[in-house]
Write a structure and sequence with these properties.
The protein has helices at residues 39-54, 62-78, 80-91, 95-118, 158-170, 183-195, 211-218, 232-241, 266-278, 298-310, 330-345, 375-378, 394-401, 417-426, 460-466; strands at 2-4, 19-23, 30-35, 123-124, 135-143, 146-150, 174-177, 203-205, 223-229, 247-251, 256-260, 288-294, 349-352, 365-368, 385-391, 406-407, 409-413, 431-434, 450-451, 454-455, 468-476. It is an alpha/beta fold. The protein folds into 2 domains: 2-252 and 453-473, 3-Layer(aba) Sandwich (Aldehyde Dehydrogenase, Chain A, domain 1); 256-443, Aldehyde Dehydrogenase, Chain A, domain 2 (3-Layer(aba) Sandwich), CATH 3.40.309.10.
């Protein structure tokens, strides 16, 4: 069993701290215990981080940051199997998908180091007017301030990497609070950062289940930037609590629409939609949820999708052939079942699934034409369920797809470039996938929710931009 304390080296504990037991969502097995931060621990960490930021002599040089990031990536690579098994156990994401996430986590640290190697300021034009004569203006990057990162459970390795790596690359001290359900992966990654040479005051993991303590941390004037991954309700509330001058990036959820035109190649669309809809049991902010299918191909598409869905291997996430694992909590299984049951009662047709397999597992589910008033049509289900809606008119399908206050990524399946471009322009989303599912992502691309789905742009390079300021020097000299 793993035991993590809040302070790894020789720092004194601020007080006698309580611990949180971490259990596997699949079978409830105890995986480890983690100390919970109290008010004294939070103040200890925040004060040291802020003092470090204010002392510009203590800032890490870019070459040192690159060295730490690259050494961390190497340590992650050397310990990948151990980290993947830990992450799959505590988060429930199947081994095969956790391995992909682990590789992405490594690449996120490498990408931050590579960006730091090539990032540069610019010359701002001067001497182009009488008032700007005899001047030279240049910009360089400097860290913005102390970063507070509040992470989510569904990608316990790579979400943490997307918050830690940009902050370290940018030179910002960071305090990270992992999800209560999946803190062990975060502690392990930070342990590797320390082994790679990162001074502890540059990065602290603070786990607390006291929402009032988290709120006090968010609203502290010493926080310069908030990175939040979680629900829209919580994210927008936290944004309102930031002190003047603090900035933030919010990554919330969606209910991704997918449009399948009548000329779509089903051998491409079906496996992509199955993967995008049931990857990590649908617990992904850009999971396929609402699929609009042209009436002419509805029956053949539905039958093919049903067959592929029913072939999915559901079970223990540590088994290498498992494709769909557990939901993060037993209560989520009950909630998903309630949503599905209500949708059927409100007129939706059950194609497959619709039942609990165990206290932690839910059968991958397909519904056809649920009511627009059903929850699955209006909100993010965050579970293994996909709803199909038939359409004859493409404009009407777009109108229905755009009705929600949520908008993140979307997808279209068509061989007609005109239809593709029309949907690219018409759909409310920050990114449209053509002939791929809505959950596609690589870590260097911009990733953002619009409407209520988020604020700011994620992705390693884009987060680094958010965590830095472009500082300008203007020199006046008669020789210029």
């Amino acid at each position: 069993m793993i035991q993590y304390n809040l302070f790894f080296a020789d720092k004194p504990k601020p007080s006698s701290l309580k611990t949180l037991q971490v259990n596997a969502p699949f079978n409830g097995a105890e995986l480890g215990r983690v100390e919970l931060a109290d008010a004294k621990a939070i103040e200890f960490s925040l004060s040291r981080a802020h003092r470090l930021f204010c002392d510009k002599r203590a800032w890490l040089k870019p070459y040192k940051r690159i060295e730490i990031l690259e050494k961390t990536a190497l340590l992650l690579q050397e310990n990948l199997e151990q980290l993947v098994l830990l992450s799959a156990a505590e988060g429930g994401k199947p081994y095969q998908d956790s391995m992909v996430e682990g590789e992405r986590c490594i690449d996120s640290f490498r990408s931050a180091a590579q960006r730091l190697r090539t990032q540069h300021g610019e010359e701002v034009p001067m001497n182009i007017s009488e008032s700007s004569a005899n001047r030279l203006a240049i910009t360089t990057y400097q860290p913005l301030g102390v970063v507070l990162a509040l992470s989510a459970f569904n990608h316990p390795m790579n979400l943490v990497a997307h918050q830690l790596a940009p902050a370290i690359a940018s030179g910002c001290p960071i305090i990270i609070k992992p999800a209560e359900a999946t803190p062990l992966s975060c502690f392990k990654i930070v342990e590797f950062l320390y082994q790679a040479g990162l001074p502890e005051d540059f990065c602290r993991v603070l786990l607390t289940n006291d929402h009032s303590l988290t709120a006090k941390l968010v609203e502290d004037a010493r926080i310069g930037f908030l990175s939040f991954i979680g629900s829209a309700t919580v994210g927008w509330m936290l944004r309102s609590m930031l002190k003047p001058g603090a900035t933030c990036a919010l990554e919330h959820g969606g209910a991704a629409p997918v449009i399948v035109a009548k000329d779509a190649k089903l051998d491409i669309a079906v496996p992509a939609i199955v993967k995008g809809g049931f990857y990590h049991a649908g617990q992904v902010c850009v999971s396929v949820q609402r699929v609009f299918v042209h009436q002419d191909i509805l029956d053949v598409f539905t039958e093919a999708l049903k067959k592929a869905t029913e072939s999915l291997q559901v079970g223990d996430p540590l088994q290498k052939d498992t494709e769909v694992g557990p939901l993060i909590r037993h209560a989520e299984v009950g909630r998903v079942h309630t949503w599905i049951t209500q949708a059927i009662q409100e007129g939706g047709k059950l194609i497959t699934g619709g039942s609990k397999l165990s206290p932690s597992l839910y059968k991958p589910t397909l519904l056809q034409n649920p009511s627009q008033h059903s929850k699955i049509s209006k909100a993010e289900i965050f579970g293994p369920a996909v709803a199909l809606y038939s359409f004859n008119n493409l404009d009407a399908a777009v109108t229905q797809a755009n009705k929600l206050p949520l908008a993140f990524q979307a997808a279209v399946f068509t061989q007609d470039i005109s239809v593709m471009l029309k949907l690219y322009k018409a759909l409310d989303a920050s990114c449209i996938m053509a002939n791929d599912h809505s959950a596609f992502r690589v870590d260097w691309m911009p990733f953002r929710g619009i409407k209520q789905s988020g604020l700011g742009t994620g992705g390693i390079h884009h987060s680094m931009e958010d965590m830095q300021i472009k500082k300008m020097l203007v020199i006046k000299n008669e020789n210029l």
